[in-house]
Amino acid sequence: MYRDLKPENLMLDIKGYVKLVDFGFSKELVRGEKTYSFVGTPEYMAPEIIKNQGHDFAVDFWSLGVLIYELLVGSPPFSSSEPQKIYAKILDGVLKYPPYMSEAAKSIISKMCRPRPGQRLGNTKNGIKDVRHHRWFGSMNWHKLRVGQLDAPTGPCYINFDRFPLDQTKAEEEFSGWDRDF
Questions:
Q1: Is it the case that residue 57 has pLDDT exceeding 60?
Q2: Which alpha helices (H) appear in 16-163, and where do they start and end?
Q3: What is the count of structural domains for the chain?
Q4: Which of 1, 20, 84, 131 has the most CB atoms around its CB within 10 Å?
Q5: CA-to-CA separations, 127 to 112, 118, 122, 131, 168, in angstroms, rounded
Q6: pLDDT in tens, 124-179
Q7: The CATH number of the domain where 56 resides is what?
Q8: How many CA atoms lie within 13 A of 90 on its CB side?
Q9: How much is the average pLDDT of 93-108?
Q10: Phi/psi of residue 55, each to 5°?
Q11: Which of 74, 79, 47, 80 is nearest to 63 (CA)?
């Protein structure tokens, strides 16, 4: 379970593929097990974390719904400068969609951001298959994505990047002694 899905934890590799970083809140769980840690970034926390109920993998599907919303709109659906107000908005569960958002996008977001974990898209009987087959993804070729054969729509942009030969010199041993009495 990842528990901190947000734009700041997504990076693009050299081919333009998204990679997750910062696994500080991740936790291994066996199916059926729950954890009670209060962790995550307020705007992306699932209701069960806020209520301090046991939570599992379903929190990542909630966060994915919030992330999709933010990538399409430019801001998360639940936001405030005060965490307590963010939590209240999440618990209210009211999602407001801009008029330009497609019905398919509204559908996947609303199905992932259901208050009850057992009803969330991705956390039902068919698991991740339901997410992959949702109409918002259209004709996505998941196999080609997995094996790196899709052309990414964008890639890292290098501006004012000076190319230097690869530096293969060994670093000198560090003798500052900062850890002598550690």
A1: yes
A2: 47-50, 58-73, 83-92, 103-112, 128-132, 142-146
A3: 1
A4: 131
A5: 12, 11, 4, 7, 46
A6: 999 999 999 999 999 899 999 999 899 888 776 777 777 778 788 877 776 666 66
A7: 1.10.510.10
A8: 27
A9: 97
A10: -135, 160
A11: 47
Residue of 4, 13, 92, 181 marked catalytic = 4
88 within a domain of the structure (yes/no): yes
Structure tokens that stand for 101 in this block: 């958002």
Cα distances (angstroms) measured from residue 88 to each of 1, 18, 116:
24, 31, 16
pLDDT (tens digit per residue) in 19-54: 999 998 999 988 889 999 999 999 999 999 999 999
Q: Is residue 167 part of a domain?
A: no
- Per-residue confidence (pLDDT) for residue 162, from 0 to 100: 75
SS3 95: coil
pLDDT at position 68, please? 98
Domain, as residue range, for 120 = 7-146
Domain presence at residue 180:
no
163 is a domain residue: no
Contacts of residue 59, Cβ cutoff 8 Å, sequence gap at least 6: 1, 3, 40, 45, 46, 48, 49, 117
Q: Supply the pLDDT for residue 152.
A: 84
